[in-house]
Amino acid sequence: MIKSDIHRLPHIVEILVHVVAWGIIFAFPIATMTRGGMTVQWHDYMRSLMIVASYAAMFYVNYLILVPRLMFSNRMKECLLWNIILIAGVTFCLHIGMNTLVHSIRYEQPFHPIGPPRSVMILRDAVSMMLVAGLSMAIQLSRRWTQLEAARREAEQRRTEAELKNLRNQLNPHFLLNTLNNIYALIAFDTDKAQQAVQDLSRLLRHVLYDNQQKTVPLCKEMDFIRNYIDLMRIRLSASVEVETRFDIRSESRTEIAPLIFISLIENAFKHGISPTEPSYIHICFEEKPQEVKCEIRNSYYPKTQADKSGSGIGLEQVRKRLELTYPGRYKWIQGVSGDGKEYQSILTIHL
Hints:
- The structure is a single chain.
- This protein is α+β, with helices and mostly antiparallel strands.
- Helices cover 62% and strands 13% of the residues.
- The protein has a 5-stranded mixed β-sheet, with helices on one face.
- Strand 4 (280-289) and strand 5 (292-300) form a beta hairpin.
């Protein structure tokens, strides 16, 4: 019941605006006539009333009938034809009524109207009717455009939300697949560490399954998830791999951030930054500033061969799509390999 009342509220406001506007227009002649202490001449007021009533008729025939049924149905010629007929008819009826009113009044002296010829008066009123019809069309077109724009924005918002949901749903199995590959490799040489890794993974999945369904999460919570993920990745690393992390993030930061927006960048660093035979390094830094979060990752670069099936390469593409949908025009992402081909860097700055 309350929801239906909310939907009816704009229509009620529209009706009130029309009532108030026309009330002012109908009352304006009285205010003009009584200015300076003059008494109201009711025959003059009736003439003004007839003019305003003809304008109102012209306005609402267009507003309620011709524009919605003809113009909005791409029947412009019919709409213009009916307006020509309507202008001629209302103007004719107005002047017949004015003449009848004049002849019904008893004057003490013979009445000889002073003013321009009747043809000029008819032309003036016809032009005024055209302006009223144009105003009615303009208001309806503006109202129609507002409704279409609101519908377009709602459709765009729903499409964006659907795309984000689809990307998140793709991210979950992608993240899980990479992590399971790491645990699988760990089982071969250290079962105790593999068991610990499974426990760590359960904590990470709790974050993925629940927090990932929200539009945003507190930054401190997202950082806890990333720390746990890095710890999980450390388990299978050899001593020749240097992993450095720096989190310049407030421990209780309530800054809202899109969930799992950084995880693919870190996955990429562990995927391409480690060599089983060469010294390797991964440096990860997170920094929080007012209305800004920065993630900087630098790692040694050892690209995977065609035979390596440890990942499908969709992670970074998902990051780019999510950034465009969630932070359009509010992020800067610098990424690429150094000139000597030995280091890969990814610097992502999000303006909140």
